[in-house]
Design a protein that fits this description.
single chain, mainly beta, 4-stranded antiparallel β-sheet, globular
C-alpha cells in the first residue's frame, strides 16, 4: 500500500529477492531481514526494512520499532555534522545523523543516507553509487576538528562546498 496512491500487488521474489510491482516491471521492493539469531530457535528472521528500487535509486524505510546497526561510532560523526553552502546554486546541504547513520539533506529533494567511507575517504550514497561525499579538514586542523568543507562527486564532476559559519549548530 503506497500512501496517497494505490495498493500494488507484488510478484514473487526473483533470484535477488526483488519483488516487482505487478504491471510495473521497473519498480521493485525487497524486504530486508535482521541478521539471523544464533539461538537455534528456528524462528524466521524479522523484517527490519523494505527497499524500494525505482529509476536507478534504492530507498530503504525502517519498519516501525526497528533500527539500523551502528556502523561508524556516532561520536566520530560529530565533527562532520553541519551545513555546507553551494554558493553557485544558492543551496545549503545539511549533514546530520539520522537513525544511526550519517545522512545528507539536499534542498528540494530528500535526505540521502551515506555508506561508511571507503579507503579514499568517500562516503557513497546508499541510494545510488553515482554520488559521493568527502569531508575536507581545515588547513592545519587536528583529528576531531569540524570538517572545513565537503567535496561532492557525481556524474557531472565534483565541487567543494565550504562549511557555513555556525553551521554545526543544527536544530
Amino acid at each position: 500500500d503506497v500512501p496517497g496512491q494505490i495498493t500494488y500487488r507484488l510478484e514473487p521474489p526473483d533470484d535477488e529477492g526483488l519483488r516487482r510491482f505487478a504491471g510495473f516491471p521497473d519498480i521493485a521492493a525487497r524486504f530486508v531481514t535482521e541478521p539471523a539469531a544464533t539461538d537455534g530457535g528456528g524462528d524466521p528472521p524479522a523484517v527490519r526494512s523494505v527497499e524500494l528500487h525505482q529509476g536507478g535509486l534504492v530507498f530503504e524505510w525502517l519498519r516501525e520499532g526497528a533500527s539500523y546497526p551502528v556502523e561508524v561510532p556516532l561520536d566520530s560523526l560529530t565533527p562532520l555534522v553541519g551545513r555546507y553552502r553551494d554558493a553557485a546554486a544558492s543551496r545549503t546541504f545539511t549533514i546530520l545523523v539520522r537513525q544511526n547513520r550519517l545522512a545528507m539533506a539536499v534542498p528540494g529533494e530528500t535526505t540521502y543516507f551515506l555508506r561508511p567511507p571507503d579507503a579514499e575517504g568517500w562516503w557513497v550514497l546508499r541510494e545510488t553509487d553515482q554520488l559521493a561525499v568527502r569531508f575536507e579538514p581545515a588547513e592545519g586542523g587536528e583529528a576531531g576538528d569540524p570538517a572545513a568543507a565537503i567535496t561532492v562527486r557525481g556524474p557531472g564532476g565534483q565541487g567543494t562546498l565550504p562549511r557555513e559559519a555556525g553551521g554545526d549548530a543544527l536544530p
